[in-house]
Amino acid sequence: MPKAQKLTLAVLINAALITSTYASEQSEAKGFVEDANGNVLFRTGYLNRDKKNGVADTSSYAQTAIVKLDSGFTQGVVGFGAGIIGDASFKLGSNNNAGNGMIPQHPDGSAYDHWARGGGYVKARYSNTTVSYGTHVLDIPVLASNTARLVPEYFEGVLATSREIDGLELTAGKFTKDQYSDQINSDGRHLDRAVIWGAKYKFDDHLTTSYFGLDSKDKLDRHYINANYKQPLNQESGLTYDLSAYHTKWDKEADTYSSTTDDLSNRKNTIWALSTTYNTGPHSVMLAYQQNNGNTGYDYGENADGAQSIYLPNSYLSDFIGNSEKSAQLQYNVDFGGYGVPGLSWTTAFVYGWDIKVKNLTDNAQEREFFNQVKYTVQSGFAKDASLRVRHSYYRASDEYQTNAYIGDTNEWRLWLDIPVKFF
């Protein structure tokens, strides 16, 4: 185990044994049933990719119910609990397309008409330290569940989080199964072992920093850092500065999306990004610059990358992570609550990438994306919290960076209707 892993795990364990610097979460436990909660999210999802240059279009339209039942913790020095998370879905209409990460496929390539997935977990808590084992939806920069499809990606394993010191959150875990959103097999991504560790520290209301690491057996080692600083200008406006970076080194046996080296023992990259956001009233404007230094792109192979483990600003339909790629973004967001329509928001962005190396073809491929998303969330009444999200991406790339190297020219639509229902 790497020294950084050992150190983080040791700190997490020791933190659970020392006196907390603030109130203990476990001391406030009300009981297994008393603190339980359950809900279901009914989601109707439509994803269409209108591809160009002779590539077949892909389209998927389906309905799901995502259920989560989560118990409270039993009372006592150590509290215990359990839960269930899963989804049941069926396709809508005659669409037989399973190429969008939405609908699972039978061995013959045909789409499932209906399907169900999920699992359970058990958990224990001492003071402000919680350990859970079973099925998880992860939100960790180096191992994040893909939640951009109809249903989430599931990981199976153990996860520990500790908040014994005010402002500091420690994380450690080990996962042995990875199930993509369009997979029935609970280990559809053939994960051997992924160990994660990290820490997030909030200095004050303005500055937050974090570090996370990942060791995916025989695949890769990945490290992530982030610093976020908020600078108030007055009561209604401010600036936010964000720096984030990934450093990845692939093992010889690993798949890689693309590379500029034939030395399989030395495939690595560092992708970093810096963004500045100006907020004033209901408006915000962000400028971002992102750059990849190394000899390969990010990666989307079976390397425990989660397919959404890219916590970088220039990430929409494309993630702008090609070999040696540089990219810049201008984003604008408005909350129409400031104009008398609470719950309605619009985000638009343009990202341009250049200097992409495509092996044996060019060192100067380019890509660009024009992104728009409108979302409305019902604020009150019987449909409170129901939301409709409509997203569109116009994506184009130079000939050398087309389908054989990346996405290929595409017009994409995503429509999500979400209706949450709380059981208890």
Write the layout of secondary structure elements.
Blueprint lengths: L2 H15 L19 E15 L6 E13 L7 E14 L22 E13 L2 E8 L2 E2 L2 E2 L9 E9 L5 E12 L14 E9 L4 E10 L3 E13 L4 E14 L17 E13 L2 E12 L31 E10 L8 E15 L3 E16 L9 E11 L12 E13 L2
Antiparallel strand pairs: 1-2, 1-20, 2-3, 3-4, 4-5, 5-8, 6-7, 8-9, 9-10, 10-11, 11-12, 12-13, 13-14, 14-15, 15-16, 16-17, 17-18, 18-19, 19-20
Keywords:
424 residues, 18-stranded antiparallel beta barrel, 4% helix
Overall description:
The structure is a single chain. This protein has 424 residues and is mostly beta strands. Helices cover 4% and strands 53% of the residues. It is built from 1 helix and 20 strands. The chain has one helix spanning 3-17, and strands at 37-51, 58-70, 78-91, 114-126, 129-136, 139-140, 143-144, 154-162, 168-179, 194-202, 207-216, 220-232, 237-250, 268-280, 283-294, 326-335, 344-358, 362-377, 387-397, 410-422. It has an 18-stranded antiparallel β-barrel. Strands 6-7 form a two-stranded antiparallel sheet. Strand 4 and strand 5 form a beta hairpin. The protein is globular and about 65 Å long. The model has no long low-confidence stretch (mean pLDDT 92).
